[in-house]
């Protein structure tokens, strides 16, 4: 079993004013004096034995928790725009299983799922998947949000997408780009319609304007859940009877 180590190394530079300043008398500029104190291991080289034992115990507990195997990954999955095996796996899983986590009969299914590439912070390596791997992949406490929005509002968001410079991973849709411009948008295999209301599952970071993905988009209704995306992934991967696998497909077409 791999040991997951979290290393935190922080160095602080503290400037301490020790001389104060002279009052501005007769038009003279105030005078300052200071010394620099580096707050690192050189500040206090002596380790507190009691604190060291406490840290060691907590680290052992954390390593044990993070080292629990929850599934397997068939091949190493990476994430990059405009689409990638890992981002496709995450959005596909969210689209399929996300509605099970909302307490509303109005969301038996969703039309589209959307994440952000910036929130996918690591790859999934081939072999065992540990809880710590999911924490590394999704370190933020973003939770699932379900949104109803009209066709023109969804179009407003998707038509801002550019394949490499402004994009977001999604499932349930297909976008064809001519250069940097989307020229065809399908939702569930059908052209995006302005007279329809679509259901989107995403994260609160995105619903609140993060990465400008839904900036200026008006919602018909928003349902928030307490389900953290990272916990959602852990639960769903645990349920899988087969190793995680994913590929790139035709959800993004570049001409």
Structural features, described:
By secondary structure, the chain is α+β, with helices and mostly antiparallel strands. It has 2 domains: 12-50, no CATH class; 71-128 and 138-254, 5'-nucleotidase,  domain 2. It has helices at residues 49-66, 85-97, 131-137, 151-158, 204-207, 229-239; strands at 12-21, 32-39, 69-73, 112-114, 127-130, 143-150, 170-171, 173-178, 181-187, 190-191, 197-203, 221-228, 252-254. The strands form 4 sheets. It has a 5-stranded mixed beta sheet. The relative contact order is 0.18. Mean pLDDT is 88; it is low at 1-23.
Write the layout of secondary structure elements.
Elements: E1 12-21, E2 32-39, H1 49-66, E3 69-73, H2 85-97, E4 112-114, E5 127-130, H3 131-137, E6 143-150, H4 151-158, E7 170-171, E8 173-178, E9 181-187, E10 190-191, E11 197-203, H5 204-207, E12 221-228, H6 229-239, E13 252-254
Parallel strand pairs: 4-11, 8-13
Antiparallel strand pairs: 1-2, 3-5, 4-7, 6-11, 6-12, 8-9, 9-10
